[in-house]
């Protein structure tokens, strides 16, 4: 190696060892901090909520990496860079190309699925196009194109030597030509003999008179050659020449008729059993492409029609006991009798619950057979009689969205489902969970030729499935809609995609990747991040989970508190040193500070809500009692069925009973005890507003009181200002250039739009004269820029405002600015803003509150505050049901319902119920195992 190459290599190695240096970072609440992040290491940024972790990781480090990337783009993109906000920092060095993996649902596109998001479906389409075998639905045989060579192989393989045979092709048929014209053309070509394949009689076109009315063209073939089967070179050559001529003259079709025997048909076209199939291409399997999408449902898999869950409301009922609701009446019971007759004849079980019936019998129930009409045809007849009022009423009772009958809900065109790899078509592969798909593709046996054609495609599919499995998403199906995923699931899919791309030398910035993960799966996630680090990447993780912090090579603790009281680096170094450090994180990790276990568990008010026969998605016909007047926590591994049970079934069922719910309710047989509840509230992680105009002040209604205060000042009265002048939502006092947004959006064609601060109001949202009105020395913009904690001190005499803001402080959101846009709040922050709104209410009615992973984004210190809020709700006489993985919340529960034992098909059962002490002793409960270790 030359001296120059050696020097270059040493310089490169030194560059790779050089840390990422940040000096003087002041983004948001950061207080001029200096940080060093070692390259190719796993660094965890932790600290209380609102201390400035995301400001450092995302708004400073990642934003600078992104800005430098944009700098390398076209001049069109770069012309906006001068006006783009640079991170407020003095100096940054060593920033690698950066990727952010955040906990936001990736898309709202109803066509996007887990398979398409991860690119697995794209590779599956390619695999089916390359090695898929088209199977004829008539004979079940593989559809192939024939050639003279394959025809000769079949002839010699199926017939004995010495046999006599004819080489033939069908009489051509052209739309504009009549039969006599076709025969005339044949005669001109010198093809003068026709063979009747039924009696092997011969017709000579030059001498025989043909009665065109009696002549059956489909029973005759044009004779090309007569031969005797001999296995020698001359005979094989002659047969090949004859077959080639026959294929050419027969428009791609020909046949060999054994004298006194069968006719062997061959086609150069892609056809079988009289059906001409489409040759597989990748586009044919795409439901996002007009060529591949089902014409009926346009690739959505569902059409407006009959809701299957309304037709069969209880999947645990049997056919005999009235599972099919419309047939369970005197008027239409004849259809049920017909079905029972068909079932008896075909040996189908009618005393088995509908959920356990075979696909074959379910197809008969819906599509009909013999004298039985079938549900689809029954409703078609009802629809045709819509001129009768009672028929319209009947049809409307069962109206909804149902699986497309044309493609059976698989989204792709019908003939795409004839193509199979292994034993499955592309729709069946999409229905597999990631765990099952991984097994299917690992076990797929290919021929040497297929391996050569599809080996690389299979490698890419297997690699991506492996990563998805390892990040704990084995329970998701490939056809699961991307817009139904939780933030944690979306983030882990992005993480698996990053691993699948195998990039090195990059900076990955992750936002709480453990969200939505049971403690059982944390180890798998940590190993994934370590492998990302080990292949040569720098991994920066914003995290609160103790296991993730302990796995870090380097920890940066931001604090000491939130908002204006945070923004400092209170610790930087190894985990061992952090445990000894005098910071909140260090104290909790070392056990010097902890969330105490309650000395006694509440017994509740003696009332329960009883849910029976819950069977939506993967729930296995479960019966659950939810005690009221206490804090109940529903636990279980990811995908075990917690959200299905609590969100889709219990909450939706109660809402439907109250009469304020129009969405779909999960299947169950009975729900009782609702009389004890006066209202229900779902406090989930959905945004408090989809508009940038929504903020904590407007959501909690504190802004109404603030605007009234400004409108009542002496200056406002002189100017004639009303409360509306201090609103950025209506014309009057707002800046009309940006219409009160504070920013202007510029479209970047092929990139995300860029937001630039409004040049007229400089982001203040209001007109200059309105900003001139001051209350205690501050204008309306200054007030909206205040953190909640500061606002409480500022409005100390204004009870109505304080009453709205104090609950935000109590749930640990004192660091949020009053005017902070709702779109910038994390899921956990949005959830706690909602909680604060409910805490501000004083109600004697018994409300049942539902919370979905409320510890998202919370430090140990904030979890303690959150628990105080839950206890306050229960003390006010309400009930709380929480879906949670956080062991601090679980250990403080009055009652636990543990679902599992696994995710997906392996879940959906009640593993254990009882107090935390009861769950700890349950050997089959993963939650119990971790709870026991945690408390000991």
UniProtKB/TrEMBL annotation:
<keyword id="KW-0227">DNA damage</keyword>
<dbReference type="InterPro" id="IPR013815">
    <property type="entry name" value="ATP_grasp_subdomain_1"/>
</dbReference>
<keyword id="KW-0963">Cytoplasm</keyword>
<keyword id="KW-0547">Nucleotide-binding</keyword>
<dbReference type="GO" id="GO:0016887">
    <property type="term" value="F:ATP hydrolysis activity"/>
</dbReference>
<keyword id="KW-0479">Metal-binding</keyword>
<comment type="similarity">
    <text>Belongs to the ABC transporter superfamily. UvrA family.</text>
</comment>
<keyword id="KW-0378">Hydrolase</keyword>
<feature type="domain" description="ABC transporter">
    <location>
        <begin position="359"/>
        <end position="591"/>
    </location>
</feature>
<keyword id="KW-0238">DNA-binding</keyword>
<keyword id="KW-0267">Excision nuclease</keyword>
<dbReference type="Pfam" id="PF17760">
    <property type="entry name" value="UvrA_inter"/>
</dbReference>
<dbReference type="InterPro" id="IPR041552">
    <property type="entry name" value="UvrA_DNA-bd"/>
</dbReference>
<dbReference type="InterPro" id="IPR027417">
    <property type="entry name" value="P-loop_NTPase"/>
</dbReference>
<feature type="domain" description="ABC transporter">
    <location>
        <begin position="600"/>
        <end position="932"/>
    </location>
</feature>
<keyword id="KW-0234">DNA repair</keyword>
<dbReference type="GO" id="GO:0005737">
    <property type="term" value="C:cytoplasm"/>
</dbReference>
<protein>
    <recommendedName>
        <fullName>UvrABC system protein A</fullName>
    </recommendedName>
</protein>
<dbReference type="InterPro" id="IPR003439">
    <property type="entry name" value="ABC_transporter-like_ATP-bd"/>
</dbReference>
<dbReference type="GO" id="GO:0006289">
    <property type="term" value="P:nucleotide-excision repair"/>
</dbReference>
<dbReference type="GO" id="GO:0003677">
    <property type="term" value="F:DNA binding"/>
</dbReference>
<dbReference type="GO" id="GO:0005524">
    <property type="term" value="F:ATP binding"/>
</dbReference>
<keyword id="KW-0067">ATP-binding</keyword>
<keyword id="KW-0863">Zinc-finger</keyword>
<dbReference type="GO" id="GO:0009380">
    <property type="term" value="C:excinuclease repair complex"/>
</dbReference>
<keyword id="KW-0677">Repeat</keyword>
<dbReference type="GO" id="GO:0004518">
    <property type="term" value="F:nuclease activity"/>
</dbReference>
<dbReference type="InterPro" id="IPR041102">
    <property type="entry name" value="UvrA_inter"/>
</dbReference>
<keyword id="KW-0228">DNA excision</keyword>
<keyword id="KW-0862">Zinc</keyword>
<dbReference type="InterPro" id="IPR004602">
    <property type="entry name" value="UvrA"/>
</dbReference>
<dbReference type="Pfam" id="PF17755">
    <property type="entry name" value="UvrA_DNA-bind"/>
</dbReference>
<dbReference type="GO" id="GO:0008270">
    <property type="term" value="F:zinc ion binding"/>
</dbReference>
<dbReference type="InterPro" id="IPR017871">
    <property type="entry name" value="ABC_transporter-like_CS"/>
</dbReference>
């Amino acid at each position: 190696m030359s001296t120059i190459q050696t020097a270059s290599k040493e310089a490169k190695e030194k560059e790779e060892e050089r840390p990422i240096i940040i000096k003087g970072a002041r983004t948001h609440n950061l207080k001029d901090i200096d940080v060093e992040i070692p390259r190719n290491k796993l660094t965890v940024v932790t600290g209380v909520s609102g201390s400035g972790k995301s400001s450092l990781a995302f708004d400073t480090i990642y934003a600078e990496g992104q800005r430098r990337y944009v700098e390398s783009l076209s001049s069109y993109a770069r012309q906006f860079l001068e006006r783009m906000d640079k991170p407020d920092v003095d100096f940054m060095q060593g920033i690698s190309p950066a990727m952010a993996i955040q906990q936001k649902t990736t898309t709202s596109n109803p066509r996007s699925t887990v398979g398409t998001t991860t690119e697995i479906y794209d590779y599956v389409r390619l695999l089916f196009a390359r090695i898929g075998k088209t199977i004829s639905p008539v004979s079940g045989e593989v559809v192939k194109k024939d050639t003279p060579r394959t025809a000769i192989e079949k002839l010699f393989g199926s017939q004995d030597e010495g046999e006599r045979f004819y080489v033939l092709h069908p009489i051509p048929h052209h739309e504009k030509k009549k039969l006599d014209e076709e025969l005339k053309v044949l005669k001109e070509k010198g093809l003068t003999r026709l063979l009747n394949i039924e009696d092997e009689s011969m017709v000579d076109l030059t001498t025989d008179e043909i009665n065109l009315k009696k002549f059956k063209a489909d029973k005759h073939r044009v004779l090309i050659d007569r031969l005797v089967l001999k296995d020698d070179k001359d005979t094989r050559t002659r047969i090949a020449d004859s077959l080639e001529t026959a294929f050419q003259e027969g428009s791609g079709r020909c046949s060999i008729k054994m004298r006194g025997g069968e006719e062997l048909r061959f086609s150069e076209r892609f056809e079988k059993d009289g059906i001409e199939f489409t040759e597989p291409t990748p586009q044919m399997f795409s439901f996002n492409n007009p060529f591949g999408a089902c014409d009926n449902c346009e690739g959505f898999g569902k059409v407006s029609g009959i809701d299957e869950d309304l037709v069969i409301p209880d999947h645990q009922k049997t056919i005999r006991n009235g599972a099919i609701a419309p047939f369970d009446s005197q008027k239409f019971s004849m259809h049920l009798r017909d079905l029972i007759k068909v079932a008896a004849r075909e040996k189908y079980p009618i005393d088995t619950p509908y959920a356990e019936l075979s696909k074959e019998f379910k197809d008969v129930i819906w599509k009909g057979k013999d004298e039985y009409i079938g549900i689809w045809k029954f409703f078609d007849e009802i629809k045709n009689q819509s001129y009768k009022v009672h028929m319209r009423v009947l049809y409307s009772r069962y109206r909804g969205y149902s699986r497309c009958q044309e493609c059976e809900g698989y989204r792709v065109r019908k003939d795409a489902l004839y193509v199979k790899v292994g034993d499955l078509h592309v729709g069946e592969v999409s229905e597999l969970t990631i765990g099952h798909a991984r097994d299917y593709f690992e076990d797929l046996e290919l021929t040497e030729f297929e391996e050569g054609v599809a080996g690389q495609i299979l490698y890419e599919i297997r690699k991506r499935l492996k990563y998805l499995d390892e990040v704990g998403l084995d329970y998701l199906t490939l056809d699961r809609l991307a817009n139904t995923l939780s933030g944690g699931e979306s983030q882990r899919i992005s993480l698996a995609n990053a691993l699948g791309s195998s990039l090195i030398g990059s900076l990955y910035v992750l936002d709480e990747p453990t969200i939505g993960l049971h403690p059982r799966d944390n180890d798998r996630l940590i190993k994934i991040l370590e492998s990302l680090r080990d292949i040569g990447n720098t991994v920066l993780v914003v995290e609160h989970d103790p296991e993730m912090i302990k796995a870090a090579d380097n920890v940066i603790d931001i604090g000491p508190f939130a908002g204006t009281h945070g923004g400092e680096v209170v610790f930087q170094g190894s985990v061992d040193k952090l445990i000894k450090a005098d910071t909140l994180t260090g104290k909790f990790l070392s056990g010097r500070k902890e969330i105490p276990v309650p000395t006694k568990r509440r017994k509740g008010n003696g009332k329960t809500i009883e849910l029976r026969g819950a069977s939506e998605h993967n729930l296995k016909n479960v019966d659950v009692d939810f005690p009221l007047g206490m804090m109940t926590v529903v636990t279980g591994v990811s995908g075990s069925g917690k959200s299905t049970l609590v969100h889709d079934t219990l909450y939706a069922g109660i809402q439907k009973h109250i009469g304020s719910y129009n969405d779909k309710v999960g299947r169950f047989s009975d729900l009782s005890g609702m009389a004890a509840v006066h209202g229900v509230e779902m406090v989930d992680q959905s945004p408090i507003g989809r508009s940038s105009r929504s903020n904590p002040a407007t959501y909690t209604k504190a802004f109404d009181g603030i605007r009234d205060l400004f409108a009542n000042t002496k200056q406002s009265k002189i100017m004639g200002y009303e409360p509306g002048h201090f609103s950025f939502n209506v014309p009057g006092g707002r800046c009309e250039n940006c219409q009160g947004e504070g920013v202007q959006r510029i479209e970047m064609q092929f990139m995300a739009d860029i937001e630039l601060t409004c040049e007229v109001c400089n982001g203040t949202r209001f007109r200059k004269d309105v900003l001139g009105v001051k209350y205690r020395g501050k204008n309306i913009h200054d007030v909206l820029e205040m953190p909640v904690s500061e606002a409480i001190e500022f409005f100390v005499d204004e009870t109505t405002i304080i009453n709205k803001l104090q609950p935000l402080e109590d749930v640990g959101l004192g660091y949020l600015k009053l005017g902070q846009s709702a779109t910038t709040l994390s899921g956990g922050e949005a959830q706690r803003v909602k909680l604060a709104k409910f805490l501000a209410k004083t109600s004697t009615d018994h409300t049942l509150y539902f919370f979905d992973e409320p510890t998202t984004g919370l430090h140990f210190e904030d979890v303690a505050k959150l628990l105080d809020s839950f206890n306050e709700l229960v003390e006010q006489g309400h009930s709380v049901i929480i879906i949670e993985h956080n062991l601090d919340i679980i250990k403080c529960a009055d009652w636990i319902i543990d679902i599992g034992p696994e995710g997906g098909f392996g879940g959906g059962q009640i593993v254990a119920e009882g107090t935390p002490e009861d769950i700890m002793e349950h050997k089959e409960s993963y939650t119990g195992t971790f709870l026991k270790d945690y408390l000991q």
